[in-house]
């Protein structure tokens, strides 16, 4: 199976759970210790079988013909348990225990005749050390690749082939059995889907190509003249498709999104005008002050600036005092209308901040004012 097909198969395995999973931030690399488990379908590839010794010559040294054969297998199952550590940069290292089991479908070769019946099973226990790399991509799933090496023990339970319908232990039968440990290796391609509602939890889907060196087993050949014993070499390789779950310890939930502070309401300004050389309030002035008081309450204003101003007639010191008296008159009216004086900043500027620029000694009505600024 090509790597491209393997990647497509792993992606297809993730689709049934994708709709219900909530993802963590895209591109998140695993960091810290984790444990995992997975189960799935194991498709053992056709196994070439090579007989040697008495299993080839038969009793009395009479050859049986073809010493090579091949076994095909029914779909089996696989179970995986693992524990590892992620370094936060995409690299992960882990230890793994796996179990694979398959029943034989048929066996051909191994003699002059076509075998009519086949039986038996093979089970493989493997202890692997794996290395992975998680890719940082802006996808709902995090793809990864890996490889591993280790040691695998395969047990063959009476791999038996019979011709002419003869039952064991009568002639025309080949029996292969035994346990054998060999170097094992695997290649892995998969994807994980973090579950945002459970920090540290992720669903996984994987394809693995797993294989060992040829297994060395006992072989017994039954013929009409008797039986003989020898050995058999059997290939051991599998394509495995897995769905699993992984939990990483110490993962904290992501911080809540930062809610931008509401922009402050723009300042609102009210202008109260005065007669020449006066600080008393006109009826129109009281109406404007009342409107400002109502606005301050409805808008939740926390600061009110009350600033008095004058025109340019008279001395600077006289106009400074006049501007302060005007500001105090407006502040007193605001206070009477229920605005706390503690929320006010009261000040006078004389003729230093003219609304309408003029020269000295000019009676400009718009400069004779108090500005109420709500902040």
TrEMBL record:
First and last residue of the signal peptide: 1-21
Name the principal localization, coarsely classed: membrane
Topological relation to the membrane, as annotated: Multi-pass membrane protein
Where it sits in the cell: the answer is: Cell outer membrane
Please provide, in alphabetical order, the Gene Ontology terms of the cellular component aspect for this entry. Answer: cell outer membrane; pore complex
The molecular function terms of the Gene Ontology recorded here are: porin activity
InterPro entries for the chain: Bact_OuterMem_StrucFunc, Beta-barrel_OMP, OMP/PagP_B-barrel, OMP_bac, OmpA-like, OmpA-like_sf
| Domain annotation OmpA-like: ranges | 261-375
Kindly state a single biological-process term from the GO annotations of this entry: monoatomic ion transport
Keywords noted in UniProt: Cell outer membrane, Ion transport, Membrane, Porin, Signal, Transmembrane, Transmembrane beta strand, Transport
Q: Write the protein's name.
A: OmpA-like domain-containing protein
The organism encoding this protein is: Falsiroseomonas bella
